[in-house]
Protein backbone atom coordinates (compact mmCIF):
# COMPACT_ATOMS: atom_id res chain seq x y z
CA UNK A 1 0.00 0.00 0.00
CA UNK A 2 1.34 3.44 -0.94
CA UNK A 3 2.04 6.10 1.68
CA UNK A 4 -1.07 8.10 0.66
CA UNK A 5 -3.18 4.96 0.66
CA UNK A 6 -1.96 4.11 4.15
CA UNK A 7 -2.82 7.59 5.40
CA UNK A 8 -6.33 7.43 3.93
CA UNK A 9 -6.78 3.98 5.50
CA UNK A 10 -5.78 5.43 8.88
CA UNK A 11 -8.27 8.30 8.54
CA UNK A 12 -11.10 5.88 7.72
CA UNK A 13 -10.17 3.62 10.66
CA UNK A 14 -10.01 6.70 12.91
CA UNK A 15 -13.48 7.79 11.79
CA UNK A 16 -15.00 4.31 12.08
CA UNK A 17 -13.47 3.85 15.57
CA UNK A 18 -14.97 7.13 16.75
CA UNK A 19 -18.28 6.21 15.11
CA UNK A 20 -18.50 3.01 17.17
CA UNK A 21 -17.36 4.66 20.40
CA UNK A 22 -19.71 7.63 20.10
CA UNK A 23 -22.59 5.49 18.86
CA UNK A 24 -22.37 4.04 22.36
CA UNK A 25 -21.46 7.15 24.36
CA UNK A 26 -23.87 9.63 22.75
CA UNK A 27 -26.72 7.14 23.04
CA UNK A 28 -25.77 6.70 26.69
CA UNK A 29 -25.78 10.46 27.30
CA UNK A 30 -29.10 10.85 25.50
CA UNK A 31 -30.91 8.31 27.69
CA UNK A 32 -28.93 8.53 30.96
CA UNK A 33 -31.31 10.84 32.84
CA UNK A 34 -34.36 8.91 31.62
CA UNK A 35 -32.83 5.61 32.75
CA UNK A 36 -31.84 7.04 36.13
CA UNK A 37 -35.38 8.31 36.74
CA UNK A 38 -36.65 4.77 36.11
CA UNK A 39 -34.24 3.07 38.52
CA UNK A 40 -36.01 1.14 41.22
CA UNK A 41 -32.84 0.81 43.29
CA UNK A 42 -33.34 3.25 46.17
CA UNK A 43 -29.61 3.08 47.01
CA UNK A 44 -28.78 4.91 43.80
CA UNK A 45 -28.94 8.70 44.08
CA UNK A 46 -27.09 9.83 40.97
CA UNK A 47 -28.16 12.43 38.43
CA UNK A 48 -27.45 12.21 34.71
CA UNK A 49 -27.27 16.01 34.49
CA UNK A 50 -24.77 16.19 37.37
CA UNK A 51 -22.68 13.41 35.81
CA UNK A 52 -22.45 15.23 32.47
CA UNK A 53 -21.61 18.45 34.32
CA UNK A 54 -18.71 16.67 36.03
CA UNK A 55 -17.54 15.15 32.72
CA UNK A 56 -17.39 18.47 30.88
CA UNK A 57 -15.91 20.30 33.86
CA UNK A 58 -13.08 17.78 34.23
CA UNK A 59 -12.63 17.65 30.42
CA UNK A 60 -12.16 21.41 30.37
CA UNK A 61 -9.48 21.37 33.05
CA UNK A 62 -7.79 18.31 31.56
CA UNK A 63 -7.23 20.12 28.26
CA UNK A 64 -4.34 21.83 30.07
CA UNK A 65 -2.44 18.56 30.58
CA UNK A 66 -3.64 16.38 27.69
CA UNK A 67 -0.91 17.51 25.21
CA UNK A 68 1.87 16.34 27.52
CA UNK A 69 0.11 13.01 28.18
CA UNK A 70 -0.29 12.33 24.46
CA UNK A 71 3.33 13.36 23.82
CA UNK A 72 4.57 10.77 26.33
CA UNK A 73 2.19 7.88 25.53
CA UNK A 74 1.66 8.51 21.81
CA UNK A 75 -1.65 9.16 20.00
CA UNK A 76 -2.59 5.55 19.23
CA UNK A 77 -2.27 4.19 22.76
CA UNK A 78 -3.76 7.40 24.18
CA UNK A 79 -6.92 6.71 22.16
CA UNK A 80 -6.96 3.03 23.19
CA UNK A 81 -6.66 3.85 26.90
CA UNK A 82 -9.29 6.60 26.59
CA UNK A 83 -11.62 4.17 24.80
CA UNK A 84 -11.36 1.73 27.71
CA UNK A 85 -12.51 4.45 30.13
CA UNK A 86 -15.41 5.37 27.82
CA UNK A 87 -16.50 1.73 27.87
CA UNK A 88 -16.22 1.55 31.66
CA UNK A 89 -18.45 4.61 32.05
CA UNK A 90 -21.16 3.00 29.90
CA UNK A 91 -20.78 -0.32 31.75
CA UNK A 92 -21.58 1.40 35.07
CA UNK A 93 -25.24 1.59 33.97
CA UNK A 94 -25.46 -2.22 33.81
CA UNK A 95 -25.48 -2.30 37.62
CA UNK A 96 -25.51 1.35 38.79
CA UNK A 97 -23.88 2.47 42.01
CA UNK A 98 -23.66 6.14 42.94
CA UNK A 99 -19.94 6.12 43.84
CA UNK A 100 -18.99 4.22 40.67
CA UNK A 101 -21.16 6.50 38.54
CA UNK A 102 -19.51 9.73 39.69
CA UNK A 103 -16.00 8.23 39.79
CA UNK A 104 -16.43 7.09 36.17
CA UNK A 105 -17.64 10.61 35.32
CA UNK A 106 -14.36 12.09 36.55
CA UNK A 107 -12.25 9.49 34.74
CA UNK A 108 -14.06 9.86 31.43
CA UNK A 109 -13.62 13.65 31.64
CA UNK A 110 -9.84 13.14 31.69
CA UNK A 111 -10.09 10.44 29.01
CA UNK A 112 -12.14 12.71 26.72
CA UNK A 113 -9.50 15.47 26.80
CA UNK A 114 -6.76 12.97 25.97
CA UNK A 115 -8.89 11.29 23.27
CA UNK A 116 -9.63 14.50 21.36
CA UNK A 117 -6.04 15.76 21.64
CA UNK A 118 -4.79 12.42 20.29
CA UNK A 119 -7.42 12.48 17.54
CA UNK A 120 -6.19 15.88 16.35
CA UNK A 121 -2.60 14.64 16.40
CA UNK A 122 -3.49 11.47 14.44
CA UNK A 123 -5.50 13.46 11.88
CA UNK A 124 -2.59 15.86 11.37
CA UNK A 125 0.01 13.09 11.06
CA UNK A 126 -2.02 11.45 8.30
CA UNK A 127 -2.77 14.66 6.35
CA UNK A 128 -1.02 17.43 4.49
CA UNK A 129 -2.17 20.84 3.28
CA UNK A 130 -3.81 19.26 0.24
CA UNK A 131 -5.69 16.50 2.07
CA UNK A 132 -6.54 18.03 5.47
CA UNK A 133 -9.91 19.35 4.23
CA UNK A 134 -10.89 16.03 2.67
CA UNK A 135 -9.72 14.02 5.68
CA UNK A 136 -11.49 16.30 8.15
CA UNK A 137 -14.69 15.90 6.11
CA UNK A 138 -14.39 12.10 6.08
CA UNK A 139 -13.80 12.03 9.85
CA UNK A 140 -16.69 14.45 10.56
CA UNK A 141 -19.16 12.48 8.44
CA UNK A 142 -18.24 9.13 9.99
CA UNK A 143 -18.42 10.59 13.51
CA UNK A 144 -21.87 12.13 12.97
CA UNK A 145 -23.27 8.82 11.70
CA UNK A 146 -22.93 7.68 15.33
CA UNK A 147 -25.97 9.80 16.15
CA UNK A 148 -28.08 7.81 13.71
CA UNK A 149 -26.96 4.25 14.47
CA UNK A 150 -27.03 4.50 18.27
CA UNK A 151 -30.37 6.23 18.48
CA UNK A 152 -31.88 3.90 15.86
CA UNK A 153 -31.02 1.03 18.21
CA UNK A 154 -32.64 2.84 21.16
CA UNK A 155 -35.75 3.58 19.07
CA UNK A 156 -36.38 -0.07 18.23
CA UNK A 157 -35.23 -1.46 21.59
CA UNK A 158 -37.59 0.78 23.57
CA UNK A 159 -40.52 0.97 21.15
CA UNK A 160 -43.84 0.74 22.96
CA UNK A 161 -42.27 0.95 26.45
CA UNK A 162 -43.54 3.44 29.02
CA UNK A 163 -41.20 2.20 31.76
CA UNK A 164 -37.59 1.07 31.48
CA UNK A 165 -37.25 -2.18 33.42
CA UNK A 166 -34.03 -3.55 34.91
CA UNK A 167 -33.86 -6.13 32.12
CA UNK A 168 -34.35 -3.46 29.42
CA UNK A 169 -31.61 -1.30 30.97
CA UNK A 170 -29.08 -4.12 31.22
CA UNK A 171 -29.71 -5.33 27.68
CA UNK A 172 -29.23 -1.86 26.20
CA UNK A 173 -26.10 -0.98 28.18
CA UNK A 174 -24.41 -4.35 27.67
CA UNK A 175 -24.91 -3.83 23.93
CA UNK A 176 -23.58 -0.24 24.11
CA UNK A 177 -20.54 -1.35 26.13
CA UNK A 178 -19.68 -3.98 23.52
CA UNK A 179 -20.09 -1.42 20.71
CA UNK A 180 -17.74 0.98 22.53
CA UNK A 181 -15.13 -1.76 23.01
CA UNK A 182 -15.27 -2.62 19.31
CA UNK A 183 -14.39 1.00 18.50
CA UNK A 184 -11.53 0.90 21.04
CA UNK A 185 -10.04 -2.27 19.55
CA UNK A 186 -10.17 -0.77 16.04
CA UNK A 187 -7.61 1.86 17.10
CA UNK A 188 -4.99 -0.92 16.97
CA UNK A 189 -5.45 -1.08 13.19
CA UNK A 190 -4.06 2.43 12.72
CA UNK A 191 -0.65 2.13 11.09
CA UNK A 192 2.21 4.29 12.34
CA UNK A 193 3.54 6.84 9.86
CA UNK A 194 7.22 7.26 9.21
CA UNK A 195 8.52 10.77 9.79
CA UNK A 196 9.14 12.23 6.33
CA UNK A 197 9.63 15.88 7.35
CA UNK A 198 12.94 17.61 6.85
CA UNK A 199 14.79 18.53 10.06
CA UNK A 200 14.06 22.24 9.61
CA UNK A 201 10.36 21.88 8.82
CA UNK A 202 8.04 23.83 11.07
CA UNK A 203 4.83 22.13 12.13
CA UNK A 204 2.63 23.75 14.79
CA UNK A 205 1.10 20.47 15.90
CA UNK A 206 4.39 18.57 16.00
CA UNK A 207 5.81 21.48 17.96
CA UNK A 208 3.41 20.62 20.75
CA UNK A 209 2.79 16.89 20.33
CA UNK A 210 5.80 15.74 18.31
CA UNK A 211 7.87 12.73 19.28
CA UNK A 212 11.10 13.28 21.19
CA UNK A 213 13.62 10.93 22.71
CA UNK A 214 13.85 13.21 25.72
CA UNK A 215 10.96 13.18 28.18
CA UNK A 216 12.22 16.52 29.46
CA UNK A 217 11.98 17.96 25.95
CA UNK A 218 8.39 16.80 25.69
CA UNK A 219 7.48 18.50 28.96
CA UNK A 220 9.22 21.72 27.86
CA UNK A 221 7.12 21.71 24.69
CA UNK A 222 3.96 21.03 26.69
CA UNK A 223 4.74 24.00 28.97
CA UNK A 224 5.39 26.16 25.91
CA UNK A 225 2.03 25.13 24.44
CA UNK A 226 0.31 25.97 27.72
CA UNK A 227 1.87 29.45 27.78
CA UNK A 228 0.88 30.03 24.16
CA UNK A 229 -2.72 29.01 24.96
CA UNK A 230 -2.85 31.54 27.83
CA UNK A 231 -1.52 34.29 25.54
CA UNK A 232 -4.02 33.54 22.77
CA UNK A 233 -6.97 33.36 25.17
CA UNK A 234 -6.65 37.09 25.93
CA UNK A 235 -6.52 38.30 22.33
CA UNK A 236 -9.48 40.40 21.16
CA UNK A 237 -10.58 37.90 18.51
CA UNK A 238 -10.46 34.91 20.85
CA UNK A 239 -12.40 36.72 23.57
CA UNK A 240 -15.12 37.64 21.07
CA UNK A 241 -15.26 34.12 19.62
CA UNK A 242 -15.48 32.71 23.15
CA UNK A 243 -19.05 34.05 23.39
CA UNK A 244 -19.98 32.11 20.24
CA UNK A 245 -18.15 29.05 21.54
CA UNK A 246 -20.02 29.34 24.85
CA UNK A 247 -23.28 29.18 22.93
CA UNK A 248 -22.23 25.93 21.22
CA UNK A 249 -21.54 24.48 24.67
CA UNK A 250 -25.05 25.35 25.87
CA UNK A 251 -26.61 23.90 22.71
CA UNK A 252 -24.48 20.76 23.07
CA UNK A 253 -25.96 20.18 26.52
CA UNK A 254 -29.52 20.86 25.44
CA UNK A 255 -29.52 18.77 22.27
CA UNK A 256 -27.49 15.82 23.59
CA UNK A 257 -29.13 15.42 27.00
CA UNK A 258 -31.88 17.80 28.06
CA UNK A 259 -34.14 17.67 25.00
CA UNK A 260 -34.21 13.87 24.92
CA UNK A 261 -35.15 13.87 28.63
CA UNK A 262 -37.97 16.32 27.90
CA UNK A 263 -39.41 14.07 25.18
CA UNK A 264 -39.17 10.98 27.39
CA UNK A 265 -41.05 12.77 30.20
CA UNK A 266 -44.13 13.78 28.18
CA UNK A 267 -46.90 11.33 29.08
CA UNK A 268 -49.11 12.69 26.27
CA UNK A 269 -46.84 10.86 23.82
CA UNK A 270 -48.20 7.60 25.23
CA UNK A 271 -46.37 4.33 24.67
CA UNK A 272 -43.97 5.99 22.22
CA UNK A 273 -42.43 8.47 24.66
CA UNK A 274 -39.28 6.45 25.44
CA UNK A 275 -38.58 5.25 21.90
CA UNK A 276 -39.02 8.83 20.67
CA UNK A 277 -35.80 9.70 22.54
CA UNK A 278 -33.90 7.55 20.05
CA UNK A 279 -35.84 8.94 17.10
CA UNK A 280 -35.05 12.47 18.27
CA UNK A 281 -31.35 11.65 18.30
CA UNK A 282 -31.62 10.32 14.74
CA UNK A 283 -33.16 13.59 13.51
CA UNK A 284 -30.47 15.59 15.32
CA UNK A 285 -27.89 13.44 13.55
CA UNK A 286 -29.51 13.98 10.16
CA UNK A 287 -29.39 17.75 10.75
CA UNK A 288 -25.74 17.58 11.82
CA UNK A 289 -24.70 15.48 8.82
CA UNK A 290 -26.63 17.63 6.34
CA UNK A 291 -25.20 20.86 7.77
CA UNK A 292 -21.70 19.44 8.04
CA UNK A 293 -21.77 18.31 4.41
CA UNK A 294 -23.22 21.49 2.96
CA UNK A 295 -21.37 24.05 5.09
CA UNK A 296 -18.20 22.08 5.83
CA UNK A 297 -17.12 20.08 2.80
CA UNK A 298 -18.63 22.54 0.30
CA UNK A 299 -17.47 25.72 2.07
CA UNK A 300 -14.87 26.50 -0.63
CA UNK A 301 -17.67 27.23 -3.09
CA UNK A 302 -19.13 29.97 -0.89
CA UNK A 303 -18.42 33.54 -2.05
CA UNK A 304 -20.16 35.28 0.84
CA UNK A 305 -17.95 34.31 3.77
CA UNK A 306 -19.09 32.72 7.01
CA UNK A 307 -21.63 35.22 8.35
CA UNK A 308 -24.61 34.02 6.24
CA UNK A 309 -24.13 30.48 7.51
CA UNK A 310 -24.01 31.63 11.15
CA UNK A 311 -27.07 33.82 10.54
CA UNK A 312 -28.89 30.77 9.16
CA UNK A 313 -27.81 28.79 12.21
CA UNK A 314 -29.18 31.27 14.75
CA UNK A 315 -32.46 31.69 12.83
CA UNK A 316 -32.91 27.92 12.65
CA UNK A 317 -32.24 27.62 16.38
CA UNK A 318 -34.60 30.46 17.28
CA UNK A 319 -37.37 28.73 15.31
CA UNK A 320 -36.58 25.46 17.11
CA UNK A 321 -36.62 27.16 20.55
CA UNK A 322 -39.95 28.85 19.75
CA UNK A 323 -41.56 25.57 18.71
CA UNK A 324 -40.12 23.70 21.71
CA UNK A 325 -41.50 26.39 24.04
CA UNK A 326 -44.98 25.88 22.57
CA UNK A 327 -44.78 22.08 22.29
CA UNK A 328 -43.05 20.93 25.49
CA UNK A 329 -44.38 21.21 29.08
CA UNK A 330 -42.38 23.65 31.16
CA UNK A 331 -41.48 21.07 33.81
CA UNK A 332 -40.32 18.41 31.31
CA UNK A 333 -36.54 18.76 32.03
CA UNK A 334 -37.03 18.15 35.77
CA UNK A 335 -40.11 15.91 35.73
CA UNK A 336 -40.21 12.96 38.18
CA UNK A 337 -39.98 9.30 37.16
CA UNK A 338 -43.72 9.22 36.44
CA UNK A 339 -43.29 11.92 33.79
CA UNK A 340 -45.50 14.98 33.37
CA UNK A 341 -49.12 15.36 32.31
CA UNK A 342 -48.83 19.11 31.86
CA UNK A 343 -49.48 20.70 28.48
CA UNK A 344 -47.70 23.76 27.12
CA UNK A 345 -49.42 26.10 24.62
CA UNK A 346 -50.41 23.26 22.29
CA UNK A 347 -51.09 19.56 22.55
CA UNK A 348 -47.64 17.88 22.42
CA UNK A 349 -46.94 16.83 18.85
CA UNK A 350 -44.47 14.09 17.93
CA UNK A 351 -44.01 15.61 14.46
CA UNK A 352 -43.13 19.04 15.88
CA UNK A 353 -40.78 17.43 18.42
CA UNK A 354 -38.88 15.61 15.65
CA UNK A 355 -38.78 18.75 13.47
CA UNK A 356 -37.18 20.61 16.38
CA UNK A 357 -34.60 17.82 16.75
CA UNK A 358 -33.63 18.22 13.09
CA UNK A 359 -33.43 22.01 13.45
CA UNK A 360 -31.23 21.70 16.57
CA UNK A 361 -28.76 19.52 14.66
CA UNK A 362 -28.79 21.71 11.54
CA UNK A 363 -28.22 24.93 13.49
CA UNK A 364 -25.48 23.36 15.59
CA UNK A 365 -23.59 22.26 12.47
CA UNK A 366 -23.83 25.82 11.09
CA UNK A 367 -22.08 27.23 14.15
CA UNK A 368 -19.48 24.50 14.58
CA UNK A 369 -18.31 24.31 10.97
CA UNK A 370 -17.87 28.08 10.80
CA UNK A 371 -16.13 28.30 14.17
CA UNK A 372 -13.65 25.61 13.13
CA UNK A 373 -13.14 27.44 9.83
CA UNK A 374 -12.47 30.88 11.31
CA UNK A 375 -10.18 29.49 14.03
CA UNK A 376 -8.15 27.66 11.40
CA UNK A 377 -7.96 30.85 9.34
CA UNK A 378 -7.04 33.25 12.15
CA UNK A 379 -4.64 30.93 13.99
CA UNK A 380 -3.10 28.84 11.22
CA UNK A 381 0.31 29.12 12.93
CA UNK A 382 -1.03 28.32 16.40
CA UNK A 383 -3.90 25.97 15.60
CA UNK A 384 -3.36 23.54 18.47
CA UNK A 385 -3.53 26.14 21.29
CA UNK A 386 -6.45 27.87 19.54
CA UNK A 387 -8.51 24.68 19.32
CA UNK A 388 -7.59 23.81 22.90
CA UNK A 389 -9.11 27.14 24.02
CA UNK A 390 -12.19 26.41 21.88
CA UNK A 391 -12.68 23.01 23.57
CA UNK A 392 -11.96 24.50 27.00
CA UNK A 393 -14.64 27.21 26.72
CA UNK A 394 -17.18 24.88 25.11
CA UNK A 395 -16.68 22.22 27.80
CA UNK A 396 -16.93 24.71 30.69
CA UNK A 397 -20.23 26.05 29.38
CA UNK A 398 -21.58 22.55 28.74
CA UNK A 399 -20.71 21.65 32.34
CA UNK A 400 -22.49 24.75 33.69
CA UNK A 401 -25.54 24.02 31.54
CA UNK A 402 -25.77 20.41 32.72
CA UNK A 403 -25.56 21.64 36.32
CA UNK A 404 -28.38 24.17 36.06
CA UNK A 405 -30.48 21.67 34.07
CA UNK A 406 -31.10 19.94 37.42
CA UNK A 407 -33.03 22.99 38.62
CA UNK A 408 -34.24 25.23 35.77
CA UNK A 409 -37.55 24.65 34.03
CA UNK A 410 -37.65 24.68 30.24
CA UNK A 411 -38.46 28.36 29.67
CA UNK A 412 -35.37 29.57 31.58
CA UNK A 413 -33.08 27.17 29.76
CA UNK A 414 -34.43 28.36 26.40
CA UNK A 415 -34.10 32.02 27.43
CA UNK A 416 -30.44 31.56 28.39
CA UNK A 417 -29.68 30.01 24.99
CA UNK A 418 -31.52 32.77 23.14
CA UNK A 419 -29.57 35.52 24.92
CA UNK A 420 -26.14 33.88 24.61
CA UNK A 421 -26.88 32.89 21.00
CA UNK A 422 -27.86 36.46 20.08
CA UNK A 423 -24.68 37.99 21.52
CA UNK A 424 -22.55 35.10 20.22
CA UNK A 425 -23.78 35.78 16.70
CA UNK A 426 -22.91 39.48 16.98
CA UNK A 427 -19.40 38.73 18.28
CA UNK A 428 -18.83 36.22 15.48
CA UNK A 429 -19.91 38.83 12.90
CA UNK A 430 -17.46 41.32 14.43
CA UNK A 431 -14.52 38.92 14.12
CA UNK A 432 -15.52 37.88 10.59
CA UNK A 433 -15.74 41.51 9.43
CA UNK A 434 -12.26 42.07 10.86
CA UNK A 435 -10.95 39.02 8.98
CA UNK A 436 -12.54 40.26 5.75
CA UNK A 437 -11.01 43.71 6.21
CA UNK A 438 -7.57 42.16 6.78
CA UNK A 439 -7.93 40.15 3.59
CA UNK A 440 -9.03 43.19 1.61
CA UNK A 441 -6.00 45.12 2.88
CA UNK A 442 -3.78 42.35 1.52
CA UNK A 443 -5.64 42.35 -1.80
CA UNK A 444 -7.02 38.83 -1.29
CA UNK A 445 -10.40 37.53 -2.40
CA UNK A 446 -12.94 37.34 0.47
CA UNK A 447 -14.40 34.15 -0.96
CA UNK A 448 -11.06 32.42 -0.37
CA UNK A 449 -11.75 32.13 3.35
From TrEMBL:
Gene3D superfamilies in UniProt: MFS general substrate transporter like domains
Localization (cell): Membrane
Membrane topology according to the record: Multi-pass membrane protein
UniProt KW keywords: Glycoprotein, Membrane, Transmembrane, Transmembrane helix
Main location: membrane
Superkingdom of the organism of origin: Eukaryota
TM spans (from-to): 7-26, 46-65, 100-118, 138-158, 170-190, 238-256, 276-297, 309-328, 386-404, 410-431
Record's protein name: UNC93-like protein MFSD11
Amino acid sequence: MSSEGKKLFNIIILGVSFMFMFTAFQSCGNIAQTVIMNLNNTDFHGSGYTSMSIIYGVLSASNLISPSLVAVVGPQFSMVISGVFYSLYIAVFIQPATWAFYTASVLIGIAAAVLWTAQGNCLTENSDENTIGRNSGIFWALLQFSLIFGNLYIYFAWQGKTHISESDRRTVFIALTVISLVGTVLFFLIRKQEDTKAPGDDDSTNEILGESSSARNKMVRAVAAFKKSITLSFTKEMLLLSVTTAYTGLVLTFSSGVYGTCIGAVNRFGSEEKSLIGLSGIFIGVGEILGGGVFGLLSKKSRSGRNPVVMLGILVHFIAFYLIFFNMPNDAPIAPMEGTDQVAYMTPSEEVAMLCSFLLGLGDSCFNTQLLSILGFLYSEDSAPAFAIFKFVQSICAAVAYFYSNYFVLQWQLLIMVLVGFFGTITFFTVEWGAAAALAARGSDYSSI
